[in-house]
Amino acid sequence: FHGTKLSIREIHWGLVPDMGISETLPPLIGADRAKLLTYSGQIISGEEAGRLGLVTQVADDPQARALELAQEIAGRSPDAVRAAKRLIDSAWAGAPQLALETGLQVGLIGSPNQIAAAVAAFSGEPAQFADPE
User: Which neighbouring-strand residues pair with 5?
Assistant: First the structure.
């Protein structure tokens, strides 16, 4: 994990976070921290991600720890593991938030300000954004 860096980078490209992060992130770290990381695109270390609760575990040898954990879970009743997964997954609202994410992302992709953000990200020059209507 040493040297690991994390970021909610979509803002760098003029986009909003997707793949469910808008629903899953605020309960993990609070709305204020979720907004800070989302709006800024700030890059944080693996250690900071651990302190914030963004990662489940931090390990010096992540692959070995993952294999150890997988072996432990594989030794449990597969019916109980499946049922527990369904139970926990059903606690998320899911569909409405994901639909909103998708709609917002579709509206941003290819828009003048999204293209300006991407051009700026590639060129290193400041973006020239148009005022939103």
Answer: 45
HSE toward the beta carbon, residue 73, CA cutoff 13 A = 10
| Model pLDDT for residues 36-84, shown as the tens digit of each residue | 999 999 999 988 998 998 888 888 888 999 999 999 999 888 888 888 8
Amino acid at 51: R
| Cβ neighbour number for residue 114 with a 10 Å cutoff | 19
Q: Which residues pair with 6 in a beta bridge?
A: 44
Helix axes 95-108, 21-29, angle to 10 degrees: 120
Amino acid letter, 17: P
Is 92 in contact with 26 (CB distance < 8 Å)? no
Quote the pTM value: 0.66
Structure tokens at 94: 């899911």
Residues 6 or more apart whose CB falls under 8 angstroms from that of 112 comprise 130
C-alpha triplet 18, 3, 42: angle, nearest 5°: 40
Q: Report the 10 Å Cβ neighbour count for 25.
A: 20
CA distance 11 to 42: 10
